Amino acid sequence: MNTASYLPSDYIPIFIQLSLALGFIVVTMLVTHNIGPKRHSVKKDDPFECGIPTQGDARAPISIKYFLVAILFVLFDVEVIFMYPWAVNFMQLGQEGFIQMVLFMGLLLAGFYYVIRKGVLKWE
């Protein structure tokens, strides 16, 4: 068994690179903050959103349907990502890999069926 022992001096290049990167970030932020123009006005400090003037309260309630659809999209999209490596290695995985993917797809479809039965995707 080959166990490599690392000395603290082996990490010096990493710390130097980290220090240089952090130093560059700090110096850049300080310089741009100090040399940039400082002109404030009511028009300039007014919030700007896509060219549309702000109206009303920004805390207006939003339908939960938007969030549910977004979460479901991410959930099922990530599930599809797991299918790609399986498809690439389909022949090497053999029957066991096929059975595991059938189980995975069954659980995925059961979740999708549950979502449809609950009416989450129905818009009014």
From TrEMBL:
Keywords annotated in UniProt: Cell membrane, Membrane, NAD, Quinone, Translocase, Transmembrane, Transmembrane helix, Transport
Catalytic reactions of this protein: a quinone + NADH + 5 H(+)(in) = a quinol + NAD(+) + 4 H(+)(out)
Annotated TM spans: 12-31, 66-86, 98-116
EC number(s) stated in the UniProt entry for this protein: 7.1.1.-
A Pfam cross-reference name: Oxidored_q4
GO cellular component: NADH dehydrogenase complex; plasma membrane
InterPro entries listed in its UniProt record: NAD(P)H_OxRDtase_bac/plastid, NADH_UbQ/plastoQ_OxRdtase_su3, NDAH_ubi_oxred_su3_sf
Organism domain of life: Bacteria
Membrane topology designation: Multi-pass membrane protein
Subcellular location as annotated: Cell membrane; Membrane
GO molecular function (one): quinone binding
Subunit structure: NDH-1 is composed of 14 different subunits. Subunits NuoA, H, J, K, L, M, N constitute the membrane sector of the complex.
Similarity comment: Belongs to the complex I subunit 3 family.
Chain's role: NDH-1 shuttles electrons from NADH, via FMN and iron-sulfur (Fe-S) centers, to quinones in the respiratory chain. The immediate electron acceptor for the enzyme in this species is believed to be a menaquinone. Couples the redox reaction to proton translocation (for every two electrons transferred, four hydrogen ions are translocated across the cytoplasmic membrane), and thus conserves the redox energy in a proton gradient.
Protein name: NADH-quinone oxidoreductase subunit A
Organism: Fibrella rubiginis
